[in-house]
């Protein structure tokens, strides 16, 4: 059973999974935040709805490139059975992350509260039942706090449409908060629109659009090199090179789809679910196929063994498990609302992928060690040289990956309030650059050439032990055929009994 068989069921599997997710998932919002019956939850002594958090750049001098947060038809609804009394105000609170300490307070150094308590009211710093807030010293006029309340018998209360101009670059947070315990089962509907000077793309995602545009260009350059070599030496192409062609093609589609995803997001403010799903799917297939190719190459498939034998089903099972776990994780992170996931919920999706990745790495290096030993024992020096370079590239990739994972964990744990949101795009971008770099190394090592077939498994023992045949990539001069003999070979040399020496040699071999 050959290696390409492992990839035959991948497209159909991922297509079915992606379509199922796209049809079953609700529309995804980001810069246009929709509120469809969002319920308030208890946080300390307040009732809260987290309505959005985004990095926003300050408005430019051009009026057409302003930054703002706009409220449209924000309506609060309560059940009829609780409408026989008026209510305390329901506030919309907008603040920049540096001003987070201006919301809430505590009496005598006790527990911090958002709603004014009796003790704080006695100190005269606030009115009991109201939200505690004070003006920022760094950013005058902030935080922005305004609201509405219910009158007797009112079932709905609508916030006036309002646009807040952003004059300072920062991470802005929007919360709907009330302190009235009588407002049970209160929900909020409507939408808020968040805009940066260059479009609706959130600040932390804005650099990714340009990044994926750049990656599309470099993939095209790699593709031109690879496909030109592929077309030039198509008669000498190995199955491994067909798989590398597949990875390059998937990579081209992935980065292009991510670019179009962010471009449409930036234009409309609503993330296109279909484009996002396809970008995620192409990326997942590319990562899975890449891992399977590396694993099977490290096992010596096509080099020291013609098939994977009994390992085929195990490799296929590992690949299938990884592609499902990775697809679910990427769909949840990119198509679903990440902020809705608690730490434990996200960990539930991340752990399987991390475990499978670790298993891939372990299996790859164990297999690679065995293949290197076989190549060295058979003195296949040309193949051995390529595999040693490949081993060095893999080792560097793993070491850099571990180091970057440590940095990523430090980055996330030390940036609890997303204050470094302007640099957050570097985290996903780095993994793209690293995987592309490894792909370039693989393309350089196994580029199609006139000598490609010399590095494929032939099953000829004489070739395996021939040192001169594996020393260089340069095509050797053609060897004379067994049927073509030199003049001296054509002339028979007779022994004393009249029988040619050639006939005597034939008799010996018989």
TrEMBL record:
Transmembrane portions of the chain: 211-228, 240-260, 288-304, 349-372, 393-413, 425-447
UniProt KW Transmembrane helix keyword: yes
PANTHER family, sorted: LUNG SEVEN TRANSMEMBRANE RECEPTOR (PTHR21229), LUNG SEVEN TRANSMEMBRANE RECEPTOR FAMILY PROTEIN (PTHR21229:SF15)
Name by which UniProt lists this protein: GOST seven transmembrane domain-containing protein
Membrane topology type: Multi-pass membrane protein
Region feature (Disordered): 474-510
Alphabetical list of InterPro entries matching this protein: GOST_TM, GPR107/GPR108-like
Organism: Rhododendron williamsianum
Main location: membrane
One GO CC annotation: membrane
Organism superkingdom: Eukaryota
Segment forming the signal sequence: 1-30
One Pfam family, short name: GOST_TM
Cellular location(s): Membrane
